[in-house]
Amino acid sequence: MTETVSRPTLEAVAARAGVSRATVSRVVNGGDGVREPLVERVRRAVEELGYVPNQAARSLVTRRHDAVAVVIAEPETRVFADPFFAHQLRGISKELTAHDSQLVLLLTEGRDDHARVARYLAGGHVDGALVFSLHLDDPLPGLIHGAGVPTVFGGRPDWGGSDRESLYVDCDNRGGAREAVRHLVGLGCTRIAHITGALDQTSAVDRLDGFRDVVGEVDPALVAEGDFTPSGGERAMRELLERRPDVDAVFVANDLSALGVLRVLREAGRRVPEDVAVIGFDDMLPIAEQTDPPLTTVRQDIEEMGRLMARLLIRGLEGATGTDTDPERSGVVLPTTVVVRGSA
Length: 344
Description:
six-stranded mixed beta sheet
């Protein structure tokens, strides 16, 4: 036989605290107008009885679901293989947990998933959305805008000339790239190549622009397109060695691609940094510290970017309910720094 344990009710909390049911409801649902001594009595009764609010009933009162969708515009295989996403999700999760809100993860395997994600967001299941790893031709921003869900984007958006306001968090991709290439120039490197990320993403475009800012007129043979993956880094490095075997430095768009670059240089008998200096972007630990040699790279605070995305969304939601009268409505760009190790 299974014994059924009854859950404490709102009425039981009211009886224990010696107040009305309405007073308990206001305290539990975060309402105003209850004197502090009564609030303390209700909270003590809630703790003693182990009362857990009914989420469905609470949503009817507060019109909040205490849930946020995190939409990553990448397939599952990419998300769980790239530690970048783990760092960002950790930051988001910490911030949402601190505000007693749940994370709902939504991934897009292909175009068919976009409509599914849009329907879910428009269905009133979550209070808002955090969206990142968008591609330039991605329909998600338009679909999310149509769903009317408060949204913060990870990475500088590019809406192709749309004047739609967007709240986003990014790092200084262009400035970080400039500093990386200046570091290589300072080492005396004169034939500096660049392996890009996926050029349908603004972060890769901005890093390529930063590279061009420093080197000026770019020899096309010294630029190879990658895709932010180790295999993409390998492929691009092989192309560079075929086209320009005299290359003496490589700025790589991210640390994962740099893993592939180091592997190809080692196979080709090129010493790092004596023959070819290598610098990455992200400073993802422990990857950057455990390469051979340890990777010089541009540090962006990925976890903090996730936390800030969640914080700005929650601030906007609270502003919509009257607890914050000045939510930020623009892009936030975090600084980057070059971390020097053994590869350059």
